[in-house]
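## Example record

The block below lists the input lines for one assembly entry, exactly as stored, with component labels intact.
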Amino acid sequence: MSQDVPLNWYLIVAACVFVIGLFGVMTRRNPIAVLMSIELMLNASNLNILAFWRLGTPNPGEAPLTGVVFTALVIAVAAAEVAVGIALILVCYRVWKSADVDRYDSMLG
Amino acid sequence: MILSRYLFIGMLLLFAIGFAVAPLVLIRIIAPRRPTPHKGQTVECGLETQGETWIRFRLQYYIFALLFVVFDVETVFLYPWAASYVSLGWYAFVEMMVFLAMLTVGLVYAWAIGALKWQ
Amino acid sequence: MLLLMLVSAGMLVAGLWEILIFREFGPMRGVFVQIAGAAVLCAVGTVLARNLIHSALYLVAFFFLVACLFIMLEAEFLAVMQVLVFIGAVAILLMFGIMLTQDVQGDQVEAHSVLRRLPAAIVAIGLFVMLAVAVQQRPDFSKARTERAAPSVAARERVLNQMPQELGLDLMQRWCLPFELVGLLLTASLVGAVALAQPVGSLSAGSDGTPSPGSLTETPEHLSREVAGGTHSSSRPDLVSP
Amino acid sequence: MNGLWVSIVAMKMAALSEPVPWVAWFLWLFVGFAGLFPLLVAYIVWGERKVAARFQDRIGPNRVGPFGLLQSIADLVKLLFKEDFTPARADFLIHALAPVLMLISAMLSLAVIPFGFGSVSMRNDPVTGVLRPTLTGFSAVDLPSGVPYLIAVSSIASLGLFLAGWSSRNKYALLGSMRSVAQMVSYEIPQVLATVPIVLWSGTLSLTGILDRQVETGWYVLTPPGFMAFVIFMISSFAEVNRAPFDLPEAESELIAGFHLEYSSMRFGLFFLAEYMSMFAVCCICTTLFLGGGAIPFLAFPRGLLGGYVVVDLFLNLITILVFSLKVGLLIFLFFWVRATLPRMRVDRLMAFAWKLLIPLCLVNLLIAAIWFEIVIRPVAGRPDGPGFLQWWIGFGVTALLEVLAFFGAVWLYRQDSEHSLKTWRSSTGSKPSIIAWRSVPTKV
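Predicted structure tokens for the full assembly:
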């Protein structure tokens, strides 16, 4: 069924989303927006892993669910990353009174 | 097979969107609309609203959302464990207990420093 | 009436577009193109939306569309997990985060400057071209796979129908260590985030008022010192909101 | 234009090479989801008003139609003709999107619920892998990961709630929605954790599979860990659907109306529909997971009657659907009863109750559920006659003892927390704790 859709298409879409996330990380000034862009990139990588698992595993009999396990782990890591990221942003906001990554320019704390 | 099951979910999703949007469209046609500046104001028991609505909220909300995220991810891992528990041995049980114990440590920590208190 | 006409015109255009896609690529690929296109559009929306809540909403739509793609890849448990974790939890956390930082929620949105965007766009497009070329040039695994003995339809069906069970088995046996590490990571992030986010004043002074002796809400002395020292507080108390 | 869409749909249908039950699906959509369920919700509303009236020694709606039966329809018509209106400062699109999201979440969760039993098919047993006759549920679809699907779908509602408050640009609405989202996410954890023992015992995430195992080994609510899970699930369901005593988000006395303050006419109607529909869905889920779905109490009805073979399908369907709706009706009545009886909780106690009492209890309950599994379910896996009498009672005794210990332990721990013990309350305030606030008569439409 889904073998109709070639692997390349998934990879291109994932690359596209990843690049958009990268663009967001570079241009957005709000730290939460930066975090969202990072989420985009993580999702792109997830899509890649799953596409390779489903459509590109060289030897499917060997490790039937490796891609799925990895994607699950990446999802967990992404959630943990957002949790800590927002905590850090709150601390930064408390210190600098601003939500602008450009202003976070000292490491004095 | 998988796809055809979710086809129904997709159909139902579209249907639900239609079902919810249809009354909204309907009331745009049949319900009266006579907006006045006073009507458009924010409801605040007859008083003029003061200041900005989108204010900074308290930290407490974030703490609970954070705890929720962590425990949500945990339960997502609990489901496959529980579903395959039948065919697993005692080591799976121990593994999951270690996993749960670690998260419980987190919960106990949050409790101990008073983060679970709604102030 | 105008609205109705607009809606019907939109439906007509959408229908023609669908027919076009379906003619060109076939039904399965047509669906893929629609979902993937919408996902990319949502990603662009996330990056470009000026209001952060709108941005988060685009992100939610993006997560949902990625879940649809997961279903197309026949990983339905992961699709459910994607919705559960990303839409149900992470999106809520992001929105709460937005509500907690004052400057960004409402009309005061950030100004975009061309100066920032131009180099970023160049870098991004350059990277995309590189990736695309790499993708086009790689050996075609899927062809190799179909030539090799593909698993029988029945076997695949069984694995996919038992996906959660199989996933649990794999996670508990083969990937036991990564699984425990994820648990550790979650705990660490929980403790770290709670410690960071806790208002510093409230930690060292006990949470509020007078906690009774022996209660669980009382902060252990070493704990509070550690946490307060771990953040930035002691050196610049004037900048710390109570 | 119609022709265009018909041809598109035809193309998409043709794309699926395998047989797909189109007729059944369209029946589900246009009879069930378009007709029956909204009608049912309308009569749940009517029932609630009647029941609440009885509790308060009133008569309730009695003007429109016999016994006021058409009251909900009349309310609907009234809402349709009210002025449609968005506050001037609101975010228009998101303001319209929020109730749509809530309704989607409620409707999608009804898709996988088996409303009774369907036919019998031969399937592999999840425990032993042996081929045996299996009951199929009378549900629109049966997903292999049905339980997490339900949780995922219901968690979309909290997003809708937040957006409703945010887009209204009203302080009360925003406060109400922030509170209610915090409440919903807090109570989602015990709700989810309470379903894990069920999955553990059934060895499957599909709701039909769970029902099938229940018919075989007895209803899960009749076991001590299952009963504990059932109670926790019900309590957190009350909070999940924002019902009394957890209806803080719409606390009329403090927040005017909470998140839907700035909603009028049919926009409000959608919220209302979504709330009652999700209540109905939660009762259905609870019946399926704990109360044996469409199985008749004290009779191994579907399995015993069948003996592994098909009887008249239609008859079986009707009986089991009837039994299922009776059970759901009882649970819904419980919702009404609690609402008419209990006062609203205070917000700090609400959060503490979830995090400091329910979640530890759930975690311990999971352990005890594993013990039950080892004593009662695992030894007899694959045997047709189910657990033996002695075995069952040994398991019952051990787990019941552990449950009681766990319960008192959790309560003791909760009480240790100074903030919530009544003693410190008294000593600090010098008066009796006033957790009870008098509530006005619940009249919603």
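Chain B has three helices and no strands. The mean pLDDT of chain B is 81.
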